[in-house]
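Colleagues,

Please find the record for the two-part complex below.
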Amino acid sequence: VSEPASWRGDLLVIGTGLVGTSVGLAATRAGARVLLHDVDERRLDRAVALGAGERWPGPDRDAARLVLVAVPPRHTGGVLIDSLQRNLGETISHTCSVQLLPQREIEAAGLLDDRFVGSHPIAGRETSGPDGASPDLFADRTWAVCPTTATGAAAIAAVESLASACGAAPVRLDPQHHDEVLGRVSHLPQLVASALAATIAELAPADSALAGAGLRDSTRLADSDPELWAQIVAANAPVLAAALPTVTAPLEALAAELAGGSPQRAHDAVRALIETGRRGRQLLPGKHGRPAARWSSVLVVIPDQPGGLAAVFAAAAEESINIEDLRLEHAAGHPVGVLELWLRQGEEDRLIAALRERGWTATSGAAGS
Amino acid sequence: VSEPASWRGDLLVIGTGLVGTSVGLAATRAGARVLLHDVDERRLDRAVALGAGERWPGPDRDAARLVLVAVPPRHTGGVLIDSLQRNLGETISHTCSVQLLPQREIEAAGLLDDRFVGSHPIAGRETSGPDGASPDLFADRTWAVCPTTATGAAAIAAVESLASACGAAPVRLDPQHHDEVLGRVSHLPQLVASALAATIAELAPADSALAGAGLRDSTRLADSDPELWAQIVAANAPVLAAALPTVTAPLEALAAELAGGSPQRAHDAVRALIETGRRGRQLLPGKHGRPAARWSSVLVVIPDQPGGLAAVFAAAAEESINIEDLRLEHAAGHPVGVLELWLRQGEEDRLIAALRERGWTATSGAAGS
């Protein structure tokens, strides 16, 4: 991690929840002097105790080089306006998942100038609060930096160097484009996962027990915090009002076709939808942003006891085979699971042989990208 | 695995795709004599070569005790009718994901009697063909057994003992109830995942690169085989025509609320949806069908090289900590990943300490069930 230059290690973080505390921990580790502020004294104490920085003595001291507002979406605009009015820093930024709304609130207050730049570290978590914080929360993540037409070069440089100091990759995005894309790849999947999970609530327990890993994967996002997401989606309401029909309209058209009574037309409609979905999946980023590679999977039966997984990964390591992705599947009633390991295509036979040699039950799984 | 009693190890499998070949491999391993048949000679040769059984010499020999039809949904009814007409076995069953349609086809042909029982080994895979087959495909899985009102006790016993011989847990279900529940927990998530993945196809590559693990998890099912799923959904059309609106209607109502311009109403609508989704998620089966336990997660930064994962699991094994679930997250641009390990609540501090002692970067993650 290089020396933070343009913000000179002088950072005020307002809001010591998961993101603010994690930024404090990462910036402190990078050698910065971090000041922390929160309206909730207990949360602030906790962040200080975790080592995320020291208490901000208040606006009477010199302005910080960089102020980062990391409060819930609903309060982001107000705290930014207050920070700009009180001139708390040379650069004023935030971490909100939505960019346009706080920017418009600042503009409406007549305060949009070269000091302000929006930003958004894209590190989704299904948790909140300082106790979930980590200096590594942003390692290997994209940190969107979203200048307005008024933003100065120094403000952009300050936030980009903070992002780098936190281990993230800063990516510059137009604020409106940010909201549209995040609406599609983050907020929309959240709502769809919740709507799908909500249908499970209607089932009898014996029936929901028939659900497998597919439904579990599909609804994982549905564990997210209701209040946080209510604020994010409300702040990005126009984008999601337009995006939701891109999912619901094809499904409603399909439902009409299925109700229509022609098996062949129903078949063709489903087939077309699934083929389009496969094309979409192939556009998801390959690992580490590399061009799409082909992967193969290996299935291994794992007993449900400590050490079962360790032996499998040790065998892969001994063969110098890199595991690209993994998934553990359990089903009701039996004390074993099946581990699916994804490898670069062509390595699966070597891993299967190595595992069988060591007494494991291993077979070839799916191929995909 | 106990000795297969009621079908006396005498099995004819018609259809040597993924499921038929896997049943052949499992039954052969359990000591059965397995005969195989397929209209595709190459696929049949492949299944025989894999050790799933021997070629069926044709209908002139004695009838098999148990005939299992494992062909695509579209052909299931026809092959069952043919098997019943030619009296190929004492019990005639199948493995189709949909129960009512083949049953009605048999009924319409006037052949519904005590020999027929529907069945469905619930082992979803995103692959097909004999080369993906495994004798462990059904280990730890539910195998639905769906008698009609005409089915005899011997037929039920035959299929249940085959399921057990394959390592699965047989569960008796009314055929219509089977189709309704599988429609909700399997076919509906497939369509929703495909519809969500289809929206990615509209994005520019630079934009889809901003997608994270959440969207990847939510759309994993979208990799499935279009033709197979077109046949499954068409065969279960009435159930899905009714089930799709349970997902689309709440999302359309939400879109209307988001377009309405009241931030507070938008907020409340999203919050209600996400809270209902969380309740649904909590009804998903706990691991091994145990009552829901509380889990905690630990996040570990993993370098992208062989052996990285092995050392983490070795540390857990040394501490006798069982890993209940796991997920590997990658993001664009950086050659490391973050591994999320799920443990029984209360064990996370011990694992974090053990990992830090060994030089790993480990922090506390989310809590959930």
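The two ends of chain A are 33 Å apart (CA to CA).

Comments are welcome before we finalize the supplementary table.
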